[in-house]
Amino acid sequence: MAGRRFMEQALSDWMRGTGPDSDIVISSRIRVARNLSGLPFPLLATNQQSAEVLDHLTAVVDEPDFAAINHFHKFSLAEMNDTEKQVLVEKHLISPSLVNESRNGFVILSDDESISIMINEEDHLRIQCLYPGLQIREAWEQASRIDDVFETHVDYAFDEKRGYLTSCPTNVGTGIRASVMMHLPALVMTQQINRILQAVTQVGLAVRGIYGEGSEAIGNLFQISNQITLGQSETEIIDNLYSVVKQIIEHEKAARELLLSDGRTRLTDRVCRSFGIMKHAAIMDSKEAAQRLSDIRLGSDLNILNHIHSSELNELLVMTQPGFLQHIYNKSLSTDERDVYRARLIRETLSKSKSKS
Q: Where does ATP bind (predicted)?
């Protein structure tokens, strides 16, 4: 595969923990869904038709106004092996749908991995922008800029009443999904999370796990996103999400203060136990790893642990996934073998950890 660094480097820029409110908001994402006018949507397209879509859209990437946005690399999924594709899914650079359901699937990645453009996924075109911390408006500005360039060169499927037409009816209208990935351990520990998430769904937002729809919320990581794309403008969708996320941040901060004031010793014990287990365990499954990493992240954010960076924990979250483990050790691993190699990788990484400045 060309551009090996997309595979070798687990840490994308959005994982570095440098954005606003990054102690609670891991990342902000905008995804824009578009289809070309006059061609069947991907689920009904023939190989020839999906190849035509690919030709139209990749030609746009070669235009000067597109090159001005960033430096991009193009990859055909047909040229990747299963492990390579799984690694890109685990890094959130492509979707499982692009891997499992696409015909003539293709991805275009920016140098810093903040931009991922998928072709022939559920829709002809999926533009994704990922930023660290709470930068949902900034991510939208970038996605909108890319969308505008495409729209000057190709005709989108658009209806005056319904807006942009998409394969899934839930995306019709603006065609955008705005989401933030939040780390909410204190709300979970203080048993407030269900009440908060119920309130979130009542204002038209969805709550999912780390890999989006259908995935489990492990490691106290929750993805909050809009459900409505029709009848609201892009600005209204983003402002609503931003407002709700800011409220969740305040609730999480209050819960963390409560844990520190009412149970600091117990919290410290939990954090240190998780760190000790991670540093010495011989076997570690992915679910336990995610939970232990959550404890350690909380300890780092609250200065209970002063010798580990959030970026190291973000990197471990990716590196301990099945695809990346197999890529690192360059061999196919059974579930039991992955648990052994995961523990080994965690031990080695934590032993090299340097003190925070």
A: 27-31, 92, 126, 177-181, 208-213
Is position 59 annotated in a ligand binding site? no
| Mean per-residue pLDDT of the chain | 90
Q: Does the annotation list 180 as a binding residue?
A: yes
Q: Is 179 annotated as a binding residue?
A: yes
User: What tokens were used for 72?
Assistant: 């991009």
The one-letter amino acid code at 129 reads C
Place of tokens 């209970």: 304
Give the pLDDT score at 216.
Answer: 61
342 annotated as a binding-site residue: no
Phi, psi of 315 (to 5 degrees): -65, -45
The answer to whether the annotation marks 34 as part of a ligand binding site is no
Work out whether the CA dihedral 327, 212, 348, 340 comes out positive or negative: negative
Three-class secondary structure of residue 308 per DSSP: coil
Helix axis angle for 234-280 and 136-153, nearest 10°, is 120
Is 95 known as a binding-site position? Answer: no
Residues 124-142 have pLDDT tens digits of: 999 999 999 999 999 999 9
Closest CA to 267 of 326, 188, 161, 181: 188
> Cα–Cα distance between 281 and 279 in angstroms, integer?
6
Is 119 annotated as a binding-site member? no
Sequence length of the chain is 357
The annotation status of 245 as a binding-site residue, yes or no, is: no
Q: pLDDT digit string (tens) for 263-317? A: 899 999 999 999 999 999 999 999 999 999 999 999 999 999 987 888 888 888 8
Cα distances (angstroms) measured from residue 38 to each of 41, 52, 101, 158, 311: 9, 11, 21, 11, 45
195: annotated binding-site residue? Answer: no
